[in-house]
C-alpha cells in the first residue's frame, strides 16, 4: 500500500509504536522552535531535565510575542532565554527579527524533516513539506534533550485542489473555506495533506497561510508536497541545498478526501467569535469597520505585504478606520523599505508596527469598545484582541485593504482591475539578528541570567487512587486556551510567574474561579466538546495545576491541550455518555474512585450526589506512568 507524505516522514522518524491510526507513536525530532511566551517555561523545564546541550539538528529560540518590554519582566525573560540559548546550543532570534513561523519558513525549515514548536501554529512550515507540529513546552524541552515526541497516529485527510484562485480571492479564503467545511473540530486526530492540480498555482507563502490555519481545524498538522515551487522558494532564500522532493504515492490511502475548486471560491470572512463562523464579503458588505490589522503568522509574507502596498499606493484609508501593518520578518520589512512599498503603506495612512505578533495576541492595538476589527490573523476568540466586546473578523489582506479604503466591509472584487505582484528571484538575506550559540567549551563557563519575575515550576504530587474534589467550574463547548489562560499586554509579561498568572485563569468566563479553586484546594473542571482548542500554551494546564485542579471532565478535548494536561499531571477524562454532562453542576462534590485500576481499564467511575457516572480515558502505558508520577517532569527525572 502506498504512503501519504506525512506517513513517509513519520516512517523515517519512527522510534517506537505502530503506524496504525489511534496508536501512540514516538517520533525523532530534527528541529525545535520556541517563542518567548512559552519559551521561558520550556527552558526552565529543559534545565530541570538536566541535559547540558540540545541534541536536535537545529533548535531556535525566537522572541516575537511580547516585545513591548513595558516593565522589567519581559526584558528579564528575554535575557534569560538569550543566555540559555548561548549556553545550551540554540540559535537566538532577537526581538524584531520576526514572527517565529515566518522566519522559520524563510530561514530554517527543511522539507521532509520533523519540527516541533511550543506554539500551535508551528504547522506553518508544512508549507514547504515539513512535518511540523505544535506542542507543549515540556514536550519541546524533552525533544531538545534528544527525547522522542509522542503523538497518536493520526488519520490522513486529503484536500484535492482544482482550478485557480480568481482575482481578489486569496489563500486565506482557502483556509476559511476549509474551516467552513470542517469546523474548528473537524481536523482533530488528522493530518491534512494538500494536493491536486490546483496546488501548482500556489506559491510557498500561500501554502504556508493554508498550513498555518490548519491549526484552527484542530488538525495534528497540515502539509504540502515539496515540489518545484518549494525548490524555487528555497533557492531564492539561498537555501537550495536543503531541498528534497516529496510527494505522496499514487496509491496512498486517505481516510477522507475533500475537493475544493479554487476557481469557485469567493472572498470570505470568519465572523466573531470563531474561525469557522464563515460568511462571504458579499453578504457582509456595508458593515461599518473601525479597525484593520494586517500581519500575524498567517498573512505577513513579502507577497502579502507587496499586495497590500500596491492596493494602497496613491490612495488614503478612510478617516474612520485605524489601520496597522506588521510585516512578518525583518527580511520582509527591509525588502518593503528597499522597493519603496513601505512608503506607499505609510502614505496611505497606515501605522507600521514591529515585526512581531503584536495585535494578534492582544499586545496593543486593541479595538475601541464594540469596535469592528478586520484582521488578517487566524484567531478571533472572544476577548483575545484585548477588548472584551470587540468584534473581530478574520479576513484576507485583499478584504482588509478594500475595507480600510471604504470604511465598510467591502468585497475586493468591486475594486476594479486586479493587482498582481511579482516575487523577487532572490530574497534579501541578512541573518544578523540571529545570534549563534557558544561552542561546547566556551558554553561550560557561561552563566544563565535570571530575573526576579521567574518563579519556580508549580509543585506536583504523585496521583492518588481516590480523588475527592469540588466541581469548581462548568463550561460549555469549544472553550479555548484564551478562556483558560488569557494572554494580552497586561498578562503576557507573567508567563514565567505561575502564581501571578493564576489570578486570571478563566477570568473571561468567571472572574471568581481562581479564588474559588484555591479555596477548594482540590477541584475538577467540567467542559463540553473540543475543550482546550487554540494555543499550545502549557500555562493553560500549569495554572490549573497550581490552583489544585486534579482532572478535567469534558465531552472531548483538543489534542495539544489534552497532552499538556497529562504532562502537568492532570487527568483529561471524557463522558461515556455525553448526556451525563447535564447531571453535573457547579459546587457538586465529586469522587473519582479506584483511579489506578480505572486508568488501566480505560474507565473510571465518578460518584456524585449518590449517583455513578462512567468516564472514559484511553491513556497509553507511558501516559499512565506520567500521571501517576505527577506529570512529565517528575516522570522524566525519575526515569
Ligand atoms: C497564540 O496564537 O495563541 C499563541 C500566543 O501564539 C499561542 C502560544 C502562546 O500562548 O504562547 C499558540 O498558538 O500556541
Ligand atoms: Fe503570534 Fe498570532 Fe501567530 Fe500566535 S497566531 S504565533 S500570537 S502571530
Structure description:
By secondary structure, this protein is of the alpha/beta class. Among the domains are: 148 residues, Aconitase, domain 3; 172 residues, Aconitase, domain 4 (Alpha-Beta Barrel). 30% of the residues lie in helices and 19% in strands. The chain has a seven-stranded mixed beta barrel, surrounded by four helices. A six-stranded mixed sheet has the order 7-6-3-4-5-20, with helices on both faces. A five-stranded parallel sheet has the order 17-16-15-18-19, covered by helices on one side. Strand 15, helix 10 and strand 16 form a beta-alpha-beta unit. Helix 6 packs parallel to helix 7, helix 10 crosses helix 12 and helix 21 packs across helix 22. It is globular, with a radius of gyration of 23 Å. The chain starts with a helix and ends with a helix. The mean pLDDT is 97. The structure holds alpha-methylisocitric acid (MIC) and iron/sulfur cluster. The site of iron/sulfur cluster (SF4) has 11 residues, from loops.
Amino acid at each position: 500500500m502506498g504512503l501519504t507524505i506525512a506517513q513517509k516522514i513519520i516512517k523515517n522518524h519512527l522510534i517506537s509504536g505502530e503506524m496504525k491510526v489511534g496508536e501512540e507513536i514516538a517520533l525523532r525530532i530534527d528541529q525545535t522552535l520556541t517563542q518567548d511566551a512559552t519559551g521561558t517555561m520550556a527552558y526552565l523545564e529543559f534545565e530541570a531535565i538536566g541535559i547540558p546541550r540540545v541534541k536536535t539538528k537545529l533548535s531556535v529560540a525566537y522572541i516575537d510575542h511580547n516585545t513591548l518590554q513595558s516593565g522589567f519582566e519581559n526584558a528579564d525573560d528575554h535575557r534569560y532565554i538569550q543566555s540559555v540559548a548561548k549556553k545550551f546550543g540554540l540559535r537566538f532570534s532577537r526581538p524584531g527579527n520576526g514572527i517565529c513561523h515566518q522566519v522559520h519558513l524563510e530561514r530554517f525549515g527543511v522539507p521532509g524533516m520533523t519540527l516541533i514548536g511550543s506554539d500551535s501554529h508551528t504547522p506553518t512550515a508544512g508549507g514547504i513539506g515539513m512535518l511540523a507540529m505544535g506542542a507543549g513546552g515540556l514536550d519541546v524541552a524533552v525533544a531538545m534533550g534528544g527525547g522522542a515526541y509522542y503523538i497518536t497516529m493520526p488519520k490522513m485527510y486529503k484536500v484535492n485542489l482544482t482550478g485557480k484562485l480568481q482575482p481578489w480571492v486569496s489563500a486565506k479564503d482557502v483556509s476559511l473555506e476549509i474551516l467552513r467545511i470542517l469546523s474548528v473540530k473537524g481536523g482533530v486526530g488528522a493530518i491534512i495533506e494538500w494536493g491536486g492540480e490546483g496546488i501548482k498555482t500556489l506559491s510557498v507563502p500561500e501554502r504556508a497561510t493554508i498550513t498555518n490555519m490548519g491549526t484552527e481545524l484542530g488538525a495534528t498538522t497540515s502539509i504540502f508536497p515539496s515540489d518545484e515551487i518549494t525548490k524555487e522558494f528555497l533557492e531564492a532564500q539561498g537555501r537550495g541545498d536543503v531541498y528534497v522532493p516529496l510527494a505522496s504515492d499514487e496509491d496512498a490511502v486517505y481516510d477522507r478526501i475533500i475537493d475544493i475548486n479554487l476557481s469557485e471560491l469567493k472572498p470570505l470572512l470568519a465572523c466573531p467569535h470563531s474561525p469557522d463562523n464563515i460568511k462571504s464579503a458579499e453578504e457582509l458588505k456595508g458593515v461599518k469597520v473601525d479597525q484593520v490589522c494586517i500581519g500575524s503568522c498567517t498573512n505577513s509574507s513579502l507577497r502579502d505585504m507587496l499586495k497590500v502596498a500596491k492596493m494602497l499606493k496613491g490612495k488614503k484609508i478612510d478617516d474612520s478606520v485605524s489601520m496597522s501593518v506588521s510585516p512578518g520578518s525583518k527580511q520582509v520589512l527591509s525588502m518593503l523599505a528597499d522597493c519603496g512599498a513601505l512608503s506607499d503603506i505609510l502614505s496611505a495612512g497606515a501605522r507600521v508596527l514591529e515585526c512581531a505578533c503584536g495585535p494578534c495576541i492582544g499586545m496593543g492595538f486593541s479595538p475601541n469598545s464594540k469596535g469592528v476589527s478586520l484582521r488578517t490573523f487566524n484567531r478571533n476568540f472572544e476577548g483575545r484582541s484585548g477588548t472584551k466586546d470587540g468584534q473581530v473578523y478574520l479576513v484576507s489582506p485583499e478584504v482588509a485593504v478594500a475595507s480600510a479604503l471604504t470604511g465598510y466591509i467591502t468585497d475586493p472584487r468591486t475594486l476594479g482591475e486586479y493587482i498582481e505582484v511579482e516575487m523577487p528571484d532572490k530574497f534579501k538575506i541578512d541573518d544578523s539578528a540571529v545570534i549563534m550559540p557558544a561552542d561546547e567549551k566556551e558554553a561550560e563557563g557561561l552563566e544563565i541570567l535570571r530575573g526576579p519575575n521567574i518563579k519556580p515550576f508549580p509543585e506536583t504530587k504523585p496521583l492518588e487512587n481516590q480523588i475527592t474534589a469540588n466541581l469548581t467550574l462548568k463550561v460549555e463547548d469549544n472553550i479555548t486556551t484564551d478562556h483558560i489562560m488569557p494572554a494580552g499586554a497586561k498578562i503576557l509579561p507573567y508567563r514565567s510567574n505561575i502564581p501571578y498568572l493564576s489570578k486570571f485563569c478563566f477570568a473571561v468566563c468567571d472572574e471568581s474561579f481562581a479564588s474559588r479553586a484555591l479555596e477548594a484546594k482540590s477541584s475538577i473542571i467540567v467542559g463540553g466538546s473540543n475543550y482546550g482548542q487554540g494555543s499550545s500554551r502549557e500555562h493553560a494546564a500549569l495554572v490549573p495545576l497550581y490552583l489544585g485542579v486534579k482532572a478535567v471532565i469534558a465531552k472531548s478535548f483538543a489534542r495539544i491541550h489534552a497532552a499538556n494536561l497529562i504532562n502537568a499531571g492532570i487527568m483529561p477524562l471524557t463522558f461515556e455518555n455525553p448526556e451525563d454532562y447535564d447531571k453535573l453542576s457547579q459546587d457538586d462534590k465529586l469522587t473519582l474512585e479506584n483511579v489506578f485500576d480505572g486508568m488501566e481499564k480505560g474507565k473510571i467511575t465518578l460518584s456524585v450526589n449518590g449517583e455513578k457516572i462512567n468516564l472514559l480515558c484511553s491513556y497509553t502505558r507511558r501516559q499512565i506512568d506520567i500521571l501517576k508520577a505527577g506529570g512529565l517532569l517528575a516522570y522524566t527525572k525519575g526515569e
